[in-house]
Amino acid sequence: MELISPTDFAKEKVLAVQEYALLSAHAIANLFRQPRYFADIVQQADFIGFGSLPIVVLTGFFTGAVLALNSASTLQKFGSLTLIAQLVSVGMVTELGPVLTGLMIAGRNSSGMASELGSMVVTEQIDAMRALGTNPIKKLVTPRVVSTVFMLFFLTIISDLLGLFGGAVISHLVYAIDWHQYWTSAWQALAFRDVFTGLVKPLLFGFIVSTIGCYYGLSARGGTQGVGRATTQAVVAASVLILAVDLFATKLLMAILGNR
Amino acid sequence: MAAPPIAIELPVKFSRESASPVIVFENVSIAFEDKPVLDGISFKLAKGETKAIFGVAGSGKSTLLKLALGLIKPDSGSIYVLGEDIVQKSEEELFELRRKVGIVFQESALFDSLTVRENVAFRLLEEGHISESEIERRVREALSFVELENTVDLFPSELSGGMRRRVAIARAIITEPEILLYDSPTAGLDPVTSTTIVELIVKQRDVYKTSSLLVTHRLQDAFTMASHYFDPKTNHMQPLPPAAIPDVPICFLLLRDGKIIFDGSVKDLAESKDEYIREYIS
Fold first, then answer.
1. How many whole angstroms separate alpha carbon A51 and alpha carbon B145?
2. Interface contacts A/B by beta carbons within 8 Å
3. What is the pLDDT of residue A260?
């Protein structure tokens, strides 16, 4: 393995951040320039949104169910089992729904985008596109960003609902909590700030998933091995960034909207 | 050898001196990771001329084509394409110029998720203002030029290597470019398919008089181009009489260690006393 000096390593990382920032800026700026690729946006929305539905449904349901199961044993000790719905509701809507859905979509779509665009780079299809007078960022990146942000928002809502449903199933079947009581309690526990927080996060995560996937794909070098490396790096970077941004977004939104 | 018919559209009486240059490289240098690839190269491509570029692997032949299209920028020097300084132009400004320049990539670089029709029509579809019927007509015309009309609905993965190159040529010529850039169009192909590709390049040169840069490893391809013309009557290339060969608008450029060591006609190449060149062409 070739050793690299700390200065070169630092320069490489700063350059990568700069390139990522430029790609993201261009992807956003292209929203306001012609031509707009509506057909590509719809195609990507179908692939990202409808294609990710099974994993989002399963993730949401099982997360809500296990959250209910784990928290119930603690709540039981304090005789507060009725709070289970509130706990599942707030936990899913503000945190687990957006983060886990973001992570699942990162696993499925960041890797997909990185491998697809990476393959296009190493087979000179991106150069061919430029040679044919088409801006690859406009044609390939912007539609993916728009579709991911849009679809992750709705996928998160579905995940939240399925999580609440999973919690309800466990609460009713294992702890004999009344359905009506569960849903009323879950609904009443949610404040505006919870819902707002839970719906802002997927917008940020969708942007991270798509831009990171596209960035690593377009940066792929070195044939199929390079594409494989780009795919892995995209998933890792997107996942870590989602968790890091979640922390800062939560803190910021708390500062703006106030604590519970 | 029978002389070709007098009525042929041969590029005879071609004068390199009087033809205006369509591509000019002036002292162009580029390095990748501190390793110089092209070092102060200068040359001109005259209108209607084909310049065959040779060199060992890694000598910067493909880099030269990418520079000519503005896909990469040189570290220093100037590049003029159709009179415009492309080094100073932004990517958006280059898109219009690229409409006048077609390129055939080494591995074809067809979009694998699109059909042959969509690949060939890509540029027209992107322009957005051309009618469906006009696009269909021009796609058929371009595919007919490369004799692949029956492949319109196939995907690139369903085509052979030679067919993919021919589709790439159709995609490059659909907008009737003034300049064509060929990056090793016959690399990795069998001799029969290679001859078909060379015949298409000769056809493009003689029928449409397109200026072109041709990167190749295969000297025999360039010699075939220098010694043949395209006969529209038989729809095949035919050998030229020896007296007509110097009039063919083709010249040779040889790269070595990032520098041009030869830029001249087939006659000059054959008569060169340079040891490396003699070894290269032997």
1. 41
2. 50
3. 64
d(CA B70, CA B25): 12
Widest distance between CA atoms in chain B: 57
B124 neighbors B162 (Cβ within 8 angstroms): no
Instruction: Render pLDDT for B144-175 as a digit per residue (tens, 0 to 9).
Output: 888 888 899 999 999 998 899 999 999 999 98
Binary contact (A134, B122; C-beta < 8 A): yes
Chain A residues within an 8 Å CB radius of B156: none
| Chain A residues near residue B111 by CB distance under 8 angstroms | 120, 125, 128-129
**Opening angle at CA B57, ends B213 and B221, nearest 5:** 45
> CA–CA separation, B88 vs B76, rounded Å?
11
- The CATH architecture of the domain made up of B21-100+179-281 is 3-Layer(aba) Sandwich (3.40)
The three state secondary structure string of chain A is CCCCCHHHHHHHHHHHHHHHHHHHHHHHHHHHCCCCCHHHHHHHHHHHHHHHHHHHHHHHHHHHHHHHHHHHHHHHHCCCHHHHHHHHHHHHHHHHHHHHHHHHHHHHHHHHHHHHHHHHHHCCHHHHHHHCCCCHHHHHHHHHHHHHHHHHHHHHHHHHHHHHHHHHHHHHHCCCCCHHHHHHHHHHHCCHHHHHHHHHHHHHHHHHHHHHHHHHHHCCCCHHHHHHHHHHHHHHHHHHHHHHHHHHHHHHHHHHHCCC
CA B223 to chain CA mean position, Å: 15
Tell me whether A25 touches chain B (CB under 8 Å).
no
Cross-chain Cβ contact A133/B99 below 8 Å: yes
CB contact under 8 A, A132 and B122: yes
User: Which residue in B245, B209, B253, B207 sits closest to B226, CA to CA?
Assistant: B245
CB proximity list for A215: less than 8 A, separation 6 or greater: A19, A20, A23, A24, A234
Q: Are A79 and A179 contacting, i.e. CB atoms less than 8 angstroms apart?
A: no
Main-chain dihedrals φ then ψ at residue B181, nearest 5 degrees: -115, 120
Peptide bond preceding B242 in cis form (omega within 30 of 0)? no
Return d(Cα B12, Cα B2) in angstroms, integer: 18
Nearest to B49 by CA among B18, B80, B27: B18
- Enumerate residue ranges in chain A where pLDDT < 70: 1-2, 260
Which ranges constitute the DSSP H helices of B11-112?
61-68, 91-98
C-alpha to C-alpha distance for B203 and A234, rounded to whole angstroms:
46
Nearest to B211 by CA among B109, B121, B100, B107: B100
Domain segments of chain B: what residues? 21-100+179-281, 106-176
**Structural tokens at position A76:** 């039981």
Confidence (pLDDT) at B114: 94
Cβ(B43)–Cβ(B17) below 8 Å: no
Structure tokens at A190: 């949610």
Structure pTM?
Answer: 0.86
Q: How confident is the model at residue B280 (pLDDT cuts 50, 70, 90)?
A: confident
Q: What pLDDT score does B5 carry?
A: 41
pLDDT computed for residue A115 by the predictor: 95
